[in-house]
């Protein structure tokens, strides 16, 4: 396993979820560039550093012994990775703040990995207002191919004059000099209307398809199963909760679990559940899918699986969710999913489940039912 070597530390780091013989690393050249820049600036034991969107903890773990570090991000898997990588390298815990909560400064240094969703970056920059110490610096980083021009525009808008660095190992820094700016009202959360059933759905900044219902879910909703029984059902990868909420409205006796690895998704799902279903009980939580769900504890799992983790595209997360669903379902329980036709989920599900049926299809999507 390659070692992440910087002027601060040499660390043995792993990604989450861990995969056997994973060719991908838990760090990249942008992490290295950020830390080299910070080392040139100089820090001390009382320097207060905020690290944003540290995918697998490479930045926070490197800095933990040398400064007062707070890490914040929207990924529960990222939080797990940070904790495991700290323990793996015999380092003390680091304070972690989910992106659904505000960080309290003042901070002397802010290190940002530019996220895939620029709305999340915008929300994070808006929240920095009033949280920067005198003389603070704000530096964002990313691999050049994943670093949109708009990221620099947001830094200039909300922080101050921004200077891009030269590219090093295909990575670039965006260095912003804070200046006095008026407080700005956040445009998040945003909302959109669902026609059938008639719902207003709230979406915090990092929610997938924040501006409108994604077309996969739109294809899935008319075909959700209905039952008057006391079904134990889960919306796996719930996003803003739309699948679980619509299912619950149509199945008044269902006991619902909604889980997502995005803290902002869970925050959105909780608020949408309360708006649609009031005080009806539900377990809505951030988690590593159904990894913590007891075996044989669910009758039904609904899922619109993701096909990427940050910028990495593939079906490994979906496959993992299918395995988790099988383990959590009782014998005879069902996993219902929607997926792009070209992803071939039908064949994958047949390797895990007793029977797989196509419930519905559009030119682009299929709705499948897999029975344990």
| pLDDT averaged residue by residue | 94
Helix-strand category:
alpha/beta
Uncertain regions: pLDDT < 50 for 5+ in a row? none
Across the major sheet, the strand order is: 5-4-3-6-7-9-8
**Which sequence of SSEs, written as H and E, runs from N to C?**
EEHEHEHEEHEHEEEEHEHEHEEEEHEHEE
Q: CATH homologous superfamily of the largest domain - what is it?
A: Vaccinia Virus protein VP39
| Global morphology | globular
CATH topology of the largest domain: Rossmann fold
Largest sheet: 7 strands, mixed
Helix content: 25-40%
Summarize the structure.
This protein is α/β, with parallel strands linked by helices and 372 residues long. It has 10 helices and 20 strands.
Describe this structure in words.
By secondary structure, the protein is an alpha/beta fold. The protein has two domains: 3-176, Vaccinia Virus protein VP39 (Rossmann fold); 190-371, Rossmann fold (3-Layer(aba) Sandwich), CATH 3.40.50. 27% of the residues lie in helices and 30% in strands. The chain is built from ten helices and 20 strands. The chain starts with a strand and ends with a strand.
Layout of secondary structure:
Blueprint: E1 3-5, E2 10-12, H1 29-41, E3 48-52, H2 58-63, E4 68-73, H3 76-88, E5 95-98, E6 107-113, H4 118-127, E7 132-143, H5 149-158, E8 162-164, E9 171-176, E10 190-194, E11 199-203, H6 215-220, E12 232-236, H7 242-250, E13 255-260, H8 263-277, E14 283-286, E15 298-303, E16 308-309, E17 312-313, H9 316-328, E18 329-340, H10 345-350, E19 355-361, E20 365-371
Domain Methyltransferase small: 199-369
Protein name: Ribosomal RNA large subunit methyltransferase G
GO cellular component, one term: cytoplasm
């Amino acid at each position: 396993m390659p070692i992440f070597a910087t002027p601060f530390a040499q660390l043995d780091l792993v990604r989450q979820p861990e995969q056997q013989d994973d060719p991908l690393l838990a760090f990249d050249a942008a992490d290295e560039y950020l830390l080299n820049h910070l080392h040139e600036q100089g820090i001390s034991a009382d320097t207060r550093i905020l690290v944003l969107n540290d995918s697998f903890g490479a930045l926070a773990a490197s800095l933990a012994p040398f400064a007062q570090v707070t890490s914040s991000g929207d990924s529960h898997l990222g939080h797990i990775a940070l904790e495991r990588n700290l323990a793996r390298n015999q380092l003390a815990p680091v304070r972690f703040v989910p992106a659904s909560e505000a960080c309290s400064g003042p901070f002397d240094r802010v290190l940002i990995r530019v996220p895939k969703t620029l709305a999340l970056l915008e929300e994070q920059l808006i929240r920095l207002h009033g949280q920067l110490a005198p003389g603070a610096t704000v530096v964002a980083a990313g691999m050049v191919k994943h670093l949109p021009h708009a990221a620099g525009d947001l830094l200039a808008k909300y922080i101050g004059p921004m200077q891009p660095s030269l590219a090093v190992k295909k990575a670039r820094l965006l260095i912003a000099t804070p200046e006095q700016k008026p407080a700005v009202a956040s445009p998040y959360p945003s909302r959109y209307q669902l026609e059938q059933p008639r719902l207003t759905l709230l979406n915090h900044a990092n929610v997938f398809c924040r501006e409108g219902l994604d077309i996969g879910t739109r294809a899935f909703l008319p075909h959700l199963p209905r039952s008057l029984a006391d079904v134990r059902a889960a919306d796996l990868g719930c996003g803003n909760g739309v699948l679980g909420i619509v299912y619950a409205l149509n199945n008044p006796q269902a006991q619902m679990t909604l889980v997502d690895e995005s803290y902002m998704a869970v925050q959105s799902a909780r608020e949408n559940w309360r708006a649609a279903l009031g005080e009806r009980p539900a377990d809505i939580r951030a988690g590593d899918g159904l990894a913590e769900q007891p075996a044989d504890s669910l009758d039904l799992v609904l899922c619109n699986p993701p096909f990427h983790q940050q910028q990495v595209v593939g079906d490994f997360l979906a496959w993992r969710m299918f395995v988790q669903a099988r383990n959590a379902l009782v014998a005879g329980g069902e996993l219902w999913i929607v997926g792009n036709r070209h992803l071939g989920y039908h064949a994958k599900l047949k390797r895990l489940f007793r029977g797989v049926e196509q419930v519905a299809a559009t030119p682009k999507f299929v709705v499948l039912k897999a029975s344990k």
